[in-house]
Amino acid sequence: MARSKHPDHETPQKAARLNSEDSFGGLGIGPILVNRLSSQGMERPRAVQAQVIPAVLEGRDVLSLAETGSGKTAAFLAPVLQKILADRPAKGQTLSPAARLRGLVICPTRELADQTGALAEQLARGTVLRTAVAVGTVAITPQRRALASGVDLLVGTPGRLNELIADGALQTDAVQSIVLDEADRMFDMGFAPQIERILSQLPGNRQMLLFTATMPKDVLQLANHHLRGAVRIETHPHTTAATHVTQHAVLVEQDSRIDLLLHLIREGGARRMLIFCRTRRRTGWVASALSRHGLKTGQLHGDRSQAQRRRALDRFASGEIDVLVATDVGSRGLHIKGVPTVVNYDLPGSAEDLVHRAGRASHGTRKKGDAWTLLGPKDLDRWYELAPQAGVAADPERIPGFSPSEDTKRPRGSLPNRHETRHRPGPGRRKRASRPIPKDQKPGRGVRRPKAD
Ligand code: AMP
Asked: How far away, in angstroms, is 169 Cα from ligand 1 center?
């Protein structure tokens, strides 16, 4: 057998695993990182990894249409870390902290940045590389301190990265690889000027990796403007629904939606559930309503502090709470393993969001998941547009054993519907809308600000 090219191969089998075409080693990742990937359950490269890794190691710019769940995070982290490792200064030499930062990853949300930073840290463990995360709404001083002491790869959100650049804590002169993750999402969130500002600070010869689930006009413009001779990698059509998830659509009036959720949880065996709502306010209502029915709930939306969001995620991941209610802030890139049921309390705004939200069901497991989309009569036209785009069978179904007219019989005021009417337009509702919400039913700071998230 040919001698392996990695020094730490102990057995021919291991050498074969590390060097074969369908191994990370075979793609050019060195043994240290191959082992770190393996410690994260990543033994064999996924399609996106098999294509992105060699291109990044060759120094090419990359435009990758990859949906969340495809394995895109390791697809960029592994080769970027590998390049930094390969370029590390010789023993005895040290780089100044400013010259050390060679990888920069920009993510749209704090959650995604935290998760990406956590994987980066795992992969860099046991190496000389240092990674850090810089996101908003948490103290900036520790981030400044980390940068001052030297970081090789930084993951952050656009606002905080700009703040750190503005005050001189973040110096980008040595950055060799910049990753824009979920670029379409960043544009949706209005980050275009901040991204442009960061890009304008980078050296001219940097490598750029752009990951996006969809290709709207503004992302295409960014790609045309900033990518040079990029390899375009499209592993999955972005609107392909996850195959392990069965999608259901149910026709149900607003007034009966909480009953339907309770029915799914109590009769349908959906013990753990991730529910998506369109607005922060509704997220609060739904969580409060379910709490009043004895369920342990958490909320995830843009009006919650970073600490509250993290706590809700941790408690949901550990099984301490049964139901997590979220706006779309939570739909992409979140890895909460083993949540079998996702519910779209409101119809998502696009086919992509429908796919992303449903993709959270049984994410990271081999088990089957279910995604339920609740539709009012007014949603039907839109649903018949979105469902085919997302590859979902469109006809709404009935849920065995659930009859709204029966299930909605309940003591007056036991459900949050009177609060839900607060946001509905219509002259008849106005007076009610000014009624204060009882203290114990206030869903959080989002109540008074009817911003979509
Ligand atoms: P991502 O698309 O990066 O959000 O990754 C989705 C999930 O896939 C994460 O839970 C990863 O741990 C997992 N994953 C990524 N790459 C691999 C791989 N090569 N083998 C097994 N699991 C993987």
From this structure: 32
